Amino acid sequence: MIHNNQIKKAHFSLLQPHPIEGDKADINMLNEIELNLDVELGSTPLSLRDIINLREGQVVALDKIAGDNVDLRANEQWLARGEVLVLNEVLGIRISSFNLDEENPDRSVE
Fold this sequence. Notes:
- By secondary structure, the protein is mainly β.
- It has one helix spanning 48-52; strands at residues 37-39, 69-74, 77-87, 90-97.
- A 4-stranded antiparallel β-sheet has the order 1-2-3-4, with no helix packed on it.
């Protein structure tokens, strides 16, 4: 059993602000971190039979049409919305929005 005379009030030293002038981290080191950038052009459900029967040169129809916006993800996190372009026979993405307020797949609608 604990008696009132055994309970003591805790005493803490005051917290002091720590100067960070000389301790500022060099944010430029973050420039060298590599991320995986993914863009999903579309999707389609296929049965295992359809996948097994795929042949070279066959066209698989996706659920998006030319000109639709695509979502860009960095390390599986929604980053931006963009449109697909062809530049000198290479696919590219033109960023159209970084707006986090617009609806994106990773945000739940409340």
